[in-house]
């Protein structure tokens, strides 16, 4: 990957819907060379896909919550069962296995605290293997980006 590829990626992270012509112009390439480079980046897996970024507040998902999850056992079968279950929960935006004082960190979007309380009681605490959770409700989102530093 060279500097031109990195420039292409920076521009695409800012506007995934940019036309090939406009992308080529911004990066100092011919449209054919630009198209070929982007194709190569897609095929190699550097570009995994494209998505629309939505406003959670306008879609009744303004409450952002992080949840520490501690499992009752740290065995492969419990890890696998938990991960498989969490993948099917639409409220969970991200799930990360972490090292430290707990096993998983979840990022969850909900309508409000009542919706979160229902999710916690009816869904998350009923997942097999969950021993304990700690909730951190976000008061202010200072920075949120999907762009990687290039």
TrEMBL record:
Domain HTH asnC-type residues, every copy: 1-62
Highest taxon of the lineage: Bacteria
UniProt KW keywords: Activator, DNA-binding, Transcription, Transcription regulation
Alphabetical list of Gene3D superfamilies matching this protein: 3.30.70.920, Winged helix-like DNA-binding domain superfamily/Winged helix DNA-binding domain
SUPFAM superfamilies linked: Dimeric alpha+beta barrel, Winged helix' DNA-binding domain
Pfam families, A to Z: AsnC_trans_reg, HTH_24
InterPro entries (UniProt xref): AsnC-type_HTH_dom, Dimeric_a/b-barrel, Tscrpt_reg_AsnC-like, Tscrpt_reg_AsnC/Lrp_C, WH-like_DNA-bd_sf, WH_DNA-bd_sf
Alphabetized PANTHER family for the sequence: LEUCINE-RESPONSIVE REGULATORY PROTEIN
Protein name in UniProt: ArsR family transcriptional regulator
Annotated organism of origin: Sphingomonas hankookensis
């Amino acid at each position: 990957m060279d500097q031109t590829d990195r420039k292409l990626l920076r521009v695409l992270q800012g506007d995934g819907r940019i036309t090939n012509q406009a992308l080529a112009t911004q990066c100092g390439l011919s449209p054919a060379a630009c198209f070929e480079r982007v194709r190569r980046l897609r095929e190699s897996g550097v570009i995994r896909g494209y998505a629309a970024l939505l406003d959670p507040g306008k879609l009744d998902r303004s409450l952002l919550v992080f949840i520490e999850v501690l499992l009752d056992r740290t065995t492969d079968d419990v890890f696998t069962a938990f991960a498989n279950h969490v993948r099917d929960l639409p409220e969970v935006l991200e799930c990360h296995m972490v090292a430290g004082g707990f096993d998983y960190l979840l990022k969850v979007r909900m309508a409000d605290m009542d919706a979160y309380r229902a999710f916690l009681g009816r869904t998350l605490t009923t997942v097999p293997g969950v021993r304990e959770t700690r909730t951190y409700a976000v008061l202010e989102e200072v920075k949120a980006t999907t762009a990687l530093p290039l």
